[in-house]
Amino acid sequence: MISTREVSEKLRWLRLKAHYSQEQLADYLALTQSTVSRIENGKQVPDAVTYENWMWVCKNPPKQFQFYYDGGNMQHVGF
């Protein structure tokens, strides 16, 4: 069985590899920065959904979108 410490170290490593600050990752996961910190320090165990989302976001960074305004409709222009 994997320990809490191993989970927290893996999640922190993934975040750093993706070049996210704790604040950025927290925004992507709809968490607070303090929750990310507690998870990375082994003081809180993430639930299964948070764990899966954390891994997915770090391995598949959100793309930056550009939009233009067209008569009330937001239109996707590109990445």
UniProtKB/TrEMBL annotation:
One of its GO terms (molecular function) is DNA binding. SUPFAM superfamilies: lambda repressor-like DNA-binding domains. CDD domains: HTH_XRE. InterPro entries: Cro/C1-type_HTH (IPR001387), Lambda_DNA-bd_dom_sf (IPR010982). Residues 11-48 form the HTH cro/C1-type domain. This is HTH cro/C1-type domain-containing protein. It comes from Paenibacillus mucilaginosus 3016.
